[in-house]
Design a protein that fits this description.
The complex is a heterodimer of chains A (146) and B (312).
Chain A (H helix, E strand, L loop, with lengths): L9 E6 L3 H10 L8 E6 L7 H9 L4 E6 L10 H18 L7 E5 L5 H18 L8 H4 L3
Helix pairs in contact in A: 1-4
Chain B lengths: L1 H14 L4 E7 L6 E6 L19 H9 L4 E5 L1 H12 L8 E5 L8 H8 L7 E3 L3 E4 L2 E4 L6 H4 L11 E2 L9 H13 L2 H12 L7 H5 L24 H15 L8 H5 L7 H15 L27
Helix pairs in contact in B: 2-3, 6-11
Classes of the chains: A alpha/beta (146), B alpha/beta (312).
Chain lengths: 146, 312
């Protein structure tokens, strides 16, 4: 594939109560952001099993974004605190084995932060673009299906 | 030391304090000791204690207690920490387990021994804390210690009812972190190459999971068909996913007993990565697994001011 034509595929896990609404607000407010994300709506950022992230990468996704409510604002009171520890552990593990740390991203975006959502997606897209198409850890036969 | 262990085990069994004593017995292959379950006071003579007793018995303790028996166990530092972790995870009550704590001078690595001695054809194998010998060939125990034992922070059991022998000091935190720090000094690409190569040799026998006292899920993620996290087969990414998945589940729980590494038929190094994870957990959450029994492991709890520099 030509590098110039290449558009990253980014999977975004957005929590229903904050980040998904934040993305909605970004849309309603007509903020422009790169069209490379595919959104999966999850009830809470704590719903995101780290295996989802690893599995996405294995399936040929170039980058992952997990986004939830700001600490203290979780709809389920404490979900994002648990999520934060899980992501920290995943991040540390991937860091230790030397995986590209720019592919796995986390953010807190509230329902009122359409502008922040735009910034986060732009930033994540740029990060993933900077490391190029995923090569490590991809199962080829999956990649063609996407 | 072994006499004392046998005596305690015998008394406990005779008193009816425990239904079964789990300890080590003579193994059936060279350089091995196998876990044995003693239910009759007269059988305590079968118990042994030498540098080949490397397996972690905490997993058996959990299974026996869930089967409704009161358990006595011969525990090294790592076994006792594993029991501590299982207690912290509320797998059983402290009153159901009686622990004979034995300070441990470090267990030897069977695979290194097999490399050094080659095949053993009927020669007499003897192992003590000074030397391991086959026939008239002998090697110092210190030389063949397993990697995990070289960086052991708690050779003396943390939890015990009876302690047999003198307490032994563990290594310092710096010493413990050395393998992990050395690994992190390499650059990212080299680490990735190192782990893809080593995990790429995995044959998915799951011996690491079976040997691990902390791996007690009824259905392991790797066996699950729905969701099917992993395909069957030897695709390198599946091997990576399995190993990363397993180690992810150990973050903040692993007591670094070295069982997984010692049973791995492919010699995959786990010491560095597990020590590295323990190091980060200690730095981030000030937690060492298996020490406090009333504190849940770090991934099962949280603080409102946890570090979050990496989150946008």
């Amino acid at each position: 594939m030509d590098e110039k034509e290449w558009k990253p595929k980014i999977l975004a896990f957005l929590c229903n109560w904050c980040s998904y609404a934040g993305a909605d607000l970004a849309g309603v407010s007509r903020f422009q952001y790169p069209p490379n994300i595919r959104v999966v709506r999850v009830p809470c950022s704590a719903r995101v099993n780290p295996m989802f992230v690893l599995k996405a990468l294995q399936s040929g996704i170039d980058g992952v974004l997990v986004s939830g409510c700001h600490p203290g604002d979780c709809h389920y009171i404490t979900g994002n605190y648990y999520a934060r520890r899980k992501f920290t552990a995943l991040k540390e593990l991937l860091d230790f084995v030397g995986y590209d740390d720019k592919r796995v991203n986390f953010s807190w975006v509230s329902a009122a932060e359409g502008g922040k959502f735009q910034k986060v997606v732009t930033e994540v897209t740029n990060r993933v673009k900077s490391v190029g198409p995923i090569k490590n850890f991809v199962k080829k036969d999956f990649q063609e299906q996407i | 030391m072994i006499e004392k262990i046998r005596e305690i085990a015998k008394n406990w069994l005779a008193e009816g304090k425990v239904d079964v004593v789990i300890g080590f017995g003579e193994g059936t292959t060279p350089f091995s000791a196998k876990p044995i379950f003693i239910t009759k006071p007269d059988d305590v003579e079968k118990l042994i204690w030498n540098p080949l007793c490397r397996l972690n018995l905490a997993g058996y303790v959990r299974r026996e207690i869930l089967a409704g028996r009161k358990v006595g166990v011969v525990a090294k530092g790592c076994d006792s920490r594993s029991i501590g972790l299982l207690l912290a995870e509320k797998q059983f009550d402290r009153k159901d387990v009686s622990i004979i704590g034995v300070p441990c001078q470090g267990m030897v690595d069977r695979k290194t021994l097999m490399k050094k001695f080659g095949n053993v054809n009927g020669e007499k194998v003897s192992a003590d804390w000074n030397s391991i010998s086959v026939g008239d060939k002998s090697i110092s125990t210190e030389e063949v210690l397993s990697n995990a034992c070289r960086i052991c922070r708690y050779p003396t059991p943390v939890h015990y009812d009876e302690l047999v022998g003198e307490k032994i000091e563990g290594v310092s935190i710096e010493e413990h972190d050395k393998p992990a720090v050395e690994m992190l000094e390499k650059n990212r690409e080299d680490r990735w190459k190192f782990y893809t190569e080593h995990f790429g040799r995995c044959i998915r026998c799951y011996a690491c999971r079976q040997a691990c006292p902390t791996c007690y899920c009824d259905e392991c993620f790797v066996d699950s068909n729905d969701p099917k996290w992993l395909e069957k087969g030897q695709h390198p990414t599946d091997l990576m996913l399995w190993n990363l998945g397993r180690i992810y589940h150990q973050v903040g729980r692993c007591v670094e007993c070295g069982s997984c590494e010692s049973v791995c038929p492919m010699d995959i190094p786990f010491t560095e990565i597990l020590a590295g994870m323990s190091k980060r957990v200690r730095e981030l959450y000030d937690y060492e697994s298996g020490i406090a029994v009333d504190e849940p492991p770090p991934l099962q709890t949280f603080k409102t001011d946890d570090p979050q520099e990496f989150i946008m």
